[in-house]
């Protein structure tokens, strides 16, 4: 029984220990197999939180790092080794504990031609390399190499290769010399390679030329395999070269060689080379035909105006002599992407069909250059004249009528129209709020008959008279009021005070204005909006100004209270103060209506005894304010509580007196009754 208890406690302690420190475990190896050089990720956990770790492949250190908490995620590349199962080990550097896993190394095979140039020509020997990586260590490997020619004939070579202790091996065989039956590279086309039928495959190409791309002036070397001293005809054809023919005799090794120089007038495109026996002695299947290209160079032209800004929609044409070699239209960044061969070119740029540039450029490789076009930036400023000074007008629409392009002036009243033809007449229509106010014609953008980078034009916004007449609630002129007008887009803005006739006059530019009327204390009385398209007269009735307000202060019983101080306030600011008369009323004249606070203060007091908020809109208003805390008694102001106490005292006194009278009367009655009884007895 005690042994079982000890074992149970031990298991529990081991469990807690494992949970506390984290059990050492490699939970995932991804991938779990692969060749030498495979990138592998290990996911694991270790005992020491945030501790250092090492990862070993067999006994070779391949990774190390620091755990995140108890989690380990590490990557390594499979080192040089032999095929089979290999041990992985995660070691906690702090505790020395280990967790293990496995990785299976698979063998990688490679076969391919060892090219020393872009391709091989007919008659060339072709080195073929065979490579084994991660194979069986220190063993013999038999490599069966097969070459399949373009005519489907196959040739083989068996190589016995000894692998290293890591299972690596490399061998080279030369085709056709090392292969049987006797073969050759005398055919144009792709030759197939295979290693042990399926373990690795590749191809190599044999052609007539020593490259597949040539530029003007380059030499095209042509080699074709025929019989010794056989005469062959070499034909080169393509655009601008209908047929260039030469007869060539094969040398003692049976190789017919011919060099052809790409002419300086050759166009970009594809060209064909064909070689055939002149007398039909050698007939090839497939025939000796191959294409090569004249690719040209990348030529990037950026169109810019005279101010240095990139210009889109410019047609760039490149001429070689009188021949159009290429043309492109610039994009949003001003770039045109052309392709041209070596040569001298004239570049011409056109905007809306009109020539704006002609530049000579020599192309010998990839080329980048700017085309500076005779195009001008037009800077239009819209202003109004105020008090003799110019004021910028923003948000003015500028329509270029000829192109139907629309622009808008910025906060400074300026609109920039880029890249215009300088010798053209432009008509600009200026509008605000969908109303035209100015049409300006600019005959050209030339200065002294020469194009310039910037051409400045100024458009004047007309001024109109706005007469604002203000009246009070009773229809009488509102004098000394402040009238403010502000353009709806922010500028300009003005303020004027009304005269004896309640009138304020403004000379303001065309636009939409918010008109506001304020009293002398800057309390807003009215507001409206007016579009100033011509001279305007605006009547604004300030119905809240000049009101008569009567406040009646009454007691608990509705009696008027005299000598009370009544104050009108707006937004906490005192507007007017007066005292109530004998009937409890206080009258205010020329009051500005709206939401007002009414305060009632007893003479000599510092705090109100009553307050009320009232929205006053009518010319004559009577407002009653009840002061329930007070009662007027014999012309004196008595607090309601005090009056109540006095009444209660009087009632108590009356009650006591009544009880006393009643008691005395009862006593007399009883005494009389007693005397009568005595007499009877």
Care to describe what's here?
The chain is mostly beta strands and 681 residues long. The protein folds into 7 domains: 21-105, Immunoglobulin-like (Sandwich); 109-206, Immunoglobulins (Immunoglobulin-like); 219-294, Immunoglobulin-like (Sandwich), CATH 2.60.40; 297-364, Immunoglobulins (Immunoglobulin-like); 376-460, Sandwich (Immunoglobulin-like); 463-541, Carboxypeptidase-like, regulatory domain (Immunoglobulin-like); 547-638, Immunoglobulin-like (Sandwich), CATH 2.60.40. The strands form 16 sheets. Strands 2-8-7-4-5 form a 5-stranded mixed sheet, with no helix packed on it. It has a 5-stranded mixed sheet with strand order 10-16-15-12-13, with no helix packed on it. Strand 4 (52-57) and strand 5 (60-66) form a beta hairpin. Mean pLDDT is 90; it is low at 1-21.
CATH architectural group of the largest domain: Sandwich
CATH fold annotation of the largest domain: Immunoglobulin-like
Tell me the total number of β-strands.
55
Distance between the termini: 119 Å
Number of domain modules: 7
Largest sheet report: 5 strands, mixed
Q: What is the spatial order of strands in the main beta sheet?
A: 2-8-7-4-5
Name the CATH class of the largest domain. Answer: Mainly Beta
The overall average pLDDT, rounded, is 90
Supply the CATH superfamily name of the largest domain.
Answer: Immunoglobulins
Global structural class:
mainly beta
Percent helix range: under 10%
Strand content: over 45%
The 3D shape can be described as elongated
Low-confidence runs of at least 5 consecutive residues: 1-21
Radius of gyration: 55 Å
Count of individual helical segments? 2
